[in-house]
Amino acid sequence: MWEDYFRQVQLVKRRICKKNLKVFFFNIYNLELNNGFSTVFLDQIPAIEIKSQTSIVYRRVVKKILDLLFSLILVPVFGLLHPFLSVMIRLSFGKPVLFKQVRVGLLRRSFRLLKYRTMSIVSGMKETDVDENHRDFIRTLLSEEEQTAFSPNVLSEVGKRIRKLKNRGEINFTGTFLRKSSLDELPQIINVLKGEMSFVGPRPALAYEVEMFPSWAEHRFDSPQGITGLWQVAGRGSMPFHTALFLDAYYTVEYSFWLDVFITIRTLRTILNIANVH
């Protein structure tokens, strides 16, 4: 169902690109997006907005400048926290404190994403590394969702499934704290400085995850991959996977300065409300 919806969004975007228009999609699927950025409703159904004009200057120049500025501002914070976090991780898991995980970035180019270690096992440091439990979980999740017809009641049940595996034995208190506070992502400031990532964009996926993505989701790689993204602030791991992929693909069609500002503000709110983070 999400493929058809995304194709409609693409079609409308192409047809209005040379006109000064806004198009609102009032689709019952929007009930599951939990987007929070809808300001227009029809019979309690939120709209998603498609604008005819996109700021090429922002996408090609301003976004990169802002990424660089914010990275330089946050580098001292990273430097202050690193010694304390390193001690916590060394005591909990040993070496390495930081690890490099191969992820798929803009235009499907691979790069090494930096993370603080949050588990006793370390996987993904090589492109051929596969976390079998995680891969099987994602495959099952995608398969079950593909077989689920749209119904607000049914989807609310599917929506209670958690995209990330919970209660894994390899994760202890330190790992849980780092993940819920998002401090495990702090080293990715370096990836942003190197131009491999942006602060805002679809999260870089693992290669074996990408292999299982539906074909229409390839469009999520048309924009820079980010530390935080639209589906993270909409559900952060607590929405169906196909829904998350739709939000990523929608972002690549519509991303702008104000959408990035919205995502950044919502990210800060989500981090502060860590009790509800999966």
Explained architecture:
The chain is mainly α and 278 residues long. The protein has one domain (2-276). The chain contains ten helices and eight strands. It has a two-stranded antiparallel sheet with strand order 1-4. It has a two-stranded antiparallel ribbon with strand order 2-3. Helix 1 runs parallel beside helix 9 (241-254). It is globular and about 55 Å long. The model is unreliable at 158-162 (pLDDT under 50).
Short description:
By secondary structure, this protein is mainly alpha-helical.
Distance between the termini: 26 Å
Q: Tally the structural domains.
A: 1
Count of beta strands: 8
Please give the order of strands in the largest beta sheet.
Answer: 1-4
Key words describing this protein structure:
10 helices; mainly alpha; two-stranded antiparallel ribbon; 278 residues; single chain
Question: What is the strand and helix layout of this fold?
Answer:
Elements: H1 2-16, E1 22-25, E2 41-42, E3 45-46, E4 48-51, H2 56-93, E5 98-104, E6 110-116, H3 132-146, H4 152-158, H5 173-181, H6 188-193, E7 198-200, H7 207-212, E8 226-228, H8 230-234, H9 241-254, H10 257-272
Parallel strand pairs: 7-8
Antiparallel strand pairs: 1-4, 2-3, 5-6
Helix pairs in contact: 1-9
